[in-house]
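User: For a benchmark we're assembling, each entry needs the component sequences followed by a predicted structure for the full assembly. Here are entry 17's components. Please fill in the structure.
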Amino acid sequence: MSKKDKSARNSKIKRIVGAVGMPECAVSSELFIQLYSNKAVSIEGNCSVLNYSDEKIAINTAGNILKVCGSDLNIEEFGNGCLEITGCIVSVSFC
Amino acid sequence: MWLITLWRYIFSYVEFTAEKGFFERFLNLCARENIKIHSPKIENGVLYGKMSVRDYRNILPIVRRSHTPLKIKSKHGLRFAVKKHKNRSGMLVGTAVFFVLIFTLSGRVWNVNILGDPKLPRTEIMSLLNSSGVFEGCSKSDLLSDDSKRIRDILLNNIDSLSWASINLDGCFADVECRMKADVPKAQDYTICNIIAQKGGRILEVKAYRGTPCVKIGDAVQSGQLLVSGAIDMTNGGTLFCAANAEIYAEVDEQLSTFVPFEQVSSLPSNTGIKRTVLTAFGFNLPLFFGSIDYDCKVEKNVLIPEFDGIRLPFKSTTAIFYPLQKVSRTIDENSARKLAVEQLTKLQKSQFGDNVINCSEPEFLTTEKGVRAVCKYTCKENIAKSEKILINP
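Assistant: Structure for entry 17:
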């Protein structure tokens, strides 16, 4: 499937989802990030770990790199398109 | 969280470390291959993590690709706990027996208790329950609501003295609650009658509840004599007939006799008994002996029911000792025969007259070739009133 066809298909899906009143994120293949206060962050979608240390975790997402900075950072769960990080989170940034 | 911990324990997991290699690549490859690593952590250049045993077996290609050799730090879970005791087959059998017992025993009735009035015909109720399928060891599902209603109806239809019955399950115990019918007072007979004497004697006490008394204290009466008349004379000259009712106590002469033969035959138990034991579990009897005893015996029975924390367990051991009876004949002298006769007379007196004896004479003995006959005369206080219908035209 070419890039043009793919974008056309995506826009079609978005129109249908919009017509039935569903949130776009329900069918989107993009990342879904949830932040629980500054204690945990849950990332759903295709991603891989680039760097993992106590103070910084870098995650490769589609086209972007997500950096989670803080202290005592831990990967609690990783797999099935789900990544959960706990610890004291100071910042979540894309670069 | 404890559920996840239990789940992981049941399926077992290993704790591993990796000291060199590309840890991030290792994590990414694991995630792609759907291998779950619990709490991966990199500390001082060492990767720590936990994964299930099944996943650890498939980790080798990922280890090679990420150049991250793993080292097992510790093993946890049921699989390893069982493996540790694999040479102890008794433990495995014991565990299996434990679970089988738990599942089997909890579905059975352990005890059948009959609750209610102490005068209840318990033996009859228990035999009816047994024939209806309620016994120690029957399945609890057999006592569901429909069945318990059916059994309750059987009890009420077959035992007249019951007014209400109910079967309730309390854990492994079947409680059969029963109530007796209340005693209905006997309807009084109002047929017109007189009170006559059923025995001759001297009147001691007159309690005339209805009717006209015809005797007074100290009078001597004969059998069949009128004591209380059912005819009451009115002041206006008329006569009213009623059902006379009275209690008339009189001194009555009675006589008792007994015969004691010189040749006495008695059955005596032998000194040595035969011991027989039967184990009962859930209504099934397991005799621990062979053969049967057909001759007359004196039996001493001992039932041992184990209890735990005040709860009767569904097992019991019944031990019976059978002492064979031997017929022994002996000849007694006249004095012994007289003594025996007096003892028998005393027993007869207690059973027939109770405490109503006012006076008794010395026993008279008549000795024959075969034995001794003893006769004793008594004076007793008795209610001699007896009703007799008055035959009149309506």
